[in-house]
Amino acid sequence: MKNNKQIVKALTSGDKIIFEKVYRHYYQWLCSFGSQYVSLDEAEEIVQDTMLWLWENRTSLNPNLSLKSFLFTIVKNKALNQIHHSHIKRRAYDAIALEHKEEFENPKFYMENELFVLYKKALTKLDPKLREAYELTRKKNLTHKQIAEMLNVSHQTVNYRIGQALKILRVELKDYLPLLAFLFC
Questions:
Q1: How many CB atoms sit inside 10 A of residue 43's CB?
Q2: Which CATH number fits domain 107-184: 1.10.10.10, 3.30.420.40, 1.10.287.130, 3.40.980.10?
Q3: Which CATH entry fits the domain spanning 4-99: 1.20.1300.10, 1.10.1740.10, 3.90.110.10, 3.40.50.20?
Q4: Do residues 173 and 180 touch, judged by C-beta distance below 8 A?
Q5: Per the database record, which ranges form the RNA polymerase sigma-70 region domain (predicted)?
Q6: Where in the chain is the domain with CATH 1.10.10.10?
Q7: 26-45 confidence digits (pLDDT tens)
Q8: What is the rounded radius of gyration, in angstroms, for the C-alpha atoms of the chain?
Q9: What is the distance between the alpha carbons of residues 151 and 36, in angstroms, rounded to a whole number?
């Protein structure tokens, strides 16, 4: 890694062996450097993106550039961009949370919500035995074994009833599943 010009020329010509050597040589240093700005996991991802960018743009590299400085600058800029994007996301999340604070803090909001009404309506469409097994597992957090003992049926019967209830609910609420998963899980 001592002759910078030769390394850059080799990269420019598509020398995969030199690229692999550059990758191995700089990877740990760049990760360590990047982790001064972001988490180590994020830094590793940034370094991998940087190396991918280097390979994809190798033909446009200036042979006079300092590869080391170039790579460290890219990692630093990507890390700073990530920090900036994280701050923007956090501010947006905080603004939404503040705007809907009362709704998030008031559990009655969800019970009065139209989505909850649709969910309750879908539950009423279940066969009573299916609904009973489903509600025991969801509302009372009972295991399938406990439900089987309580209802005096086999474990497989409980599995079947809950499975059937879930199938029916998925069909009834197919348009709302992502929202339901977020609200009730």
A1: 22
A2: 1.10.10.10
A3: 1.10.1740.10
A4: yes
A5: 23-83
A6: 107-184
A7: 999 999 999 999 999 999 99
A8: 28
A9: 58
Q: Which residues contact 44 (CB under 8 A, 6 or more apart)?
A: 31, 34
Q: How many residues does the chain have?
A: 185
Structure tokens at 124: 């009423």
- Residue 79 in tokens: 């890390």
How much of the chain, in percent, has pLDDT values that exceed 90? 59
Residue numbers of the chain with a pLDDT score lower than 70 = 1, 100, 102-113, 177-185
Structure tokens that stand for 1 in this block: 């890694």
For residue 95, give the amino acid letter. A
Residue 147 near residue 133 (C-beta atoms within 8 A): yes
* Residue 159, token pair as written in the block: 């599995």
Q: Is 128 exposed, middle or buried (0-12, 13-18, 19+ CB in 10 A)?
A: exposed
